[in-house]
Amino acid sequence: MTVIYMPKQSNGTVHSSKDLNQLIEYVMNPEKTNDFEYVSGQNILDIHSTCDEMLATRTMAIALKNKPRKNEIYGYHFVQSFSPDDHLTPEQAHEIGLKTMKEYLGSSAEFIIATHTDKPHLHNHIVLNATNPLTLNKFHQNKNDLERLKEISDKISKEYGCKIIDRPND
């Protein structure tokens, strides 16, 4: 059974470079990711410099296009969690997460995905840079976008034999 959500305590948003760095350190924890084996990125040159790369994208956007704002969003945090009953390998969980985010965001988004193997249920943490490195525009997500993400996650998870939660249509 696959579930994808944005953590409630932060509403899935990161509002400072310090918080972005702490989040990235947490999700990439080598004890949770089999010594970085299950960490990868899109439009990230080196996973170990993810925060610097994301902040450089933001700095470029500010220099060329956008003005910094009060309470600006630096990044987004998504969690995709799988049931132990689905009998996925960490590689499969990681693959599902990558395919889900690539279909949802396209190829120009900048993100990392880290599959945590430290609990009975495998789960992916995805950290998305709020600034697109190609367009330098900010990422915006509404309730319909989050529902679309859940549908994409369900579709791809189903291809791997995962059970899907029936969600009421709002």
TrEMBL record:
Residues 26-161 form the MobA/VirD2-like nuclease domain. It holds the Pfam family Relaxase. It comes from the Bacteria. Keywords: Plasmid. InterPro entries: Endonuclease_MobA/VirD2. This is Relaxase.
